[in-house]
Amino acid sequence: MPDPNIKPLAADFVVAARVPDPQRWFFHDPNLARLDDGTLLIAAPQWNRPGNAVNRCLRILRSDDGGRNWEEGATLPFEEGTPFVLDGQLLMFVQQKSHQNFQIIGSDDGGRSWSRAHTVIEKPVWNISTAMLAQPEALFWAMDHDLPGAAHKGKVMVRLERDKSPFDPAAWSISNLVQPPAVPAVLTRELFPPDNRPQLSGGWKNSFVWLEPNTVEIGNRIRVFTRCIIDEYATAHIAGVLDYDPRTRHLSFTQLASWPGAQGKFFLVHDQPQGMYWMLSNLVTNSQDLLGWGERMRESGYHGGPGNERRWLFLHYSIDCLNWFPAGCVAYWPEHIHRSFMYPSAVVDGDDLVVLSRTSCDSGDQHDADLCTVHRIHAFRSLALNLHQGGLHC
After folding, report:
1. Spatial CA neighbour of 347 closest among 22, 79, 40, 120
2. Tens of pLDDT along 34-57?
């Protein structure tokens, strides 16, 4: 049997969508959903690259054959879109303007047409393709909440009461706002301080950024795991952990935790019948530039610090969402750091895991993706050891 850490699990991919011109457009945060009848749906925000005065839009694509072929449907006037199915109804979180207000639209025909947008929360919130949690009484989804002059800085839990219409603002509520933690000095060498980065091209304005939270249930506990960018990716593989109490509706920061690939956007899947969590993330090779790539990376226009590498997409599994085992490499670009498989989302489809990647092939930038690619990992559960075996059961 081939080694899944060397031979990729899903190197053969299908291109579901491509931008008209990679010099003018890129895909921002595409999202994947599976309808109850097995239809796969992609919502792909298409943004203009800097210097190109074109309108942002949301492209909708459908596949009725498991992702082998894709049909493009409506193009919607939104900058963001995250589709999901709840109580048999296809819904989508959208934003006419990114980071402004929580809006919901719905479809009664499998994503071919959509309702008007309903603004249900008037707050500067934002999230993309991350895990939501549906419990019998409510849907929970942690989100970024902007603070004055600082996008992504706060975190909140958004809650939808399932006995009410998702288009009714009264069905939605928002928790307290959690400020970012102070990063311990032992976790950063301050190699790339915001005001002194001559060896980098671009980068974040702050030395600590947390964003794109995933929401899951672990042992009757609602937990949130969020990406952390520390010192412009120099300190990689650290996630932020928050806990939410549904009785008091209170969200609180819990800890920082080691997490493979948490310097980049990751995606969680709770495979509930198996009591297993699966996670997709990007591993990196040279986050503190000990190999001396910096000057050449800056001159070539590489986006951010060396740890902002996105060409190695890996799959991991866990039973507690803190301690991760490697399942294998999903896909990778071995020949160039300007290429990437990144910003994954995934759905379980029978015995397989279907993965959507925001993929950069010919854009010349590991961030600005020109493709949406779909990867199918066959019999994905066979990649995992039985971590429950031999444990102490109550």
Report:
1. 40
2. 999 999 999 999 999 887 767 899
